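Internal QA ticket QA-208
Title: Verify multi-chain structure generation after dependency bump
Assignee: T.L.

Test input:
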Amino acid sequence: MDKDTLLGPAAPIRGLCRMTTERAQRGYPLTRFLCSMRHARQREALVNDLEGCLRDSGLSELEKNMLRRRDFVAMLDHGAATVAVAKVCRAWGVTLVELGALGRGQSAQDFITERKRANLGQPWEF
Amino acid sequence: MGILIGGIGSSHAPSIAHAWDQGHQQRPEWKPFFDAYGPVKQWLADQRVDTVVMFYNDHLNHFQFGNYPTFAMGIAETMPVCDEGDGPRDFPPVPGNVALGWHLASSLVADEFDLTICQEIALDHGVMSVLPLLASPPWPFKVIPINVNVLREPMPTPQRCWRIGQAVGRAIQSYDKDARVVVAATGGLSHQLHGPDFGFVNPEWDNRFLDLLVEQPEVLARASHADYMQRGGAEGVEMMMWLAMRGALSTQARPLKPIQRFYWGPMLTGYGLLALQAQA
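Actual output:
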């Protein structure tokens, strides 16, 4: 039996954004900035003085605008690492569920409801 | 003489650490998940395991893209817990097995796996989501962490993960001092954390993966990154790290004895747990 048969069917995942070297190169400055949110002083600066935080960031205006708009989808499209975006979300108090909802244009509650519906009938439901 | 006792695969989602720290172990939705680790924890104790070699991925907490290895091994007497943004979790530093670590490093490089060696390393949830479920502090075994790049292209192939696991298995058995070792791998299972299908979980693929990992791991080793992503989501590519654990076990002649298998896919991630014994 060939490999593809044994692996089973591919899933129809929409908007699958594969990592590429081009995205790695373009996304590096933004990823580096987002990862600076590991440090408490940077988180405070982001929350209390976003423009001051961005001033010395070395980011382009395009990248700064993504942060001003809190446009997480644009950050990921630009090439920022998913785990780096999660760090700025945490600094702003945005949960993973809220991040998912934002990306889908939903409220967090609608997102949760939809995920639960998607999981209905599965053996882990209780 | 190094003895490879067996292998463990486990998800390492940060939600596990959050639920643990919030004391959700007895909540109805989490209890079956946490309870599933009980037999594995007992097995590690019964087998007097003294070292766990753990394949995992750091999440840009210790390593940064400015200097980012494909494979990196931590060889340190103790390894602190990372501050991932909320301060480090309240766990003691993790002890490392320096002597076995250097033996593994030497063996792997001789085997043409050119590792980055880290004599200082902090451990994030790639290790620390799982460790408290496998043992209670003070940590009863030492850990040799091996970070795998699953975050940025070019990533190692699944085949390469399989082969480095085989090299680790051989190296453990060529160790001339006493060591009772388990090889673990963390990550996955299916999860997709961007785009219109954010939150996609694929239990059919996750369970097929667990079946194949036990019975036909070479099929998974021959698969491409795209094969993994198109079934388990882009972030699900980290499932290939489990092949390193299974590769280590493939160096054992004896049939593998199942210790535990558990699966749960409640919301944004397929959580998996698998433990296999290679030798008594």
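Spot checks passed. The mean pLDDT of chain A is 88.
Status: verified.
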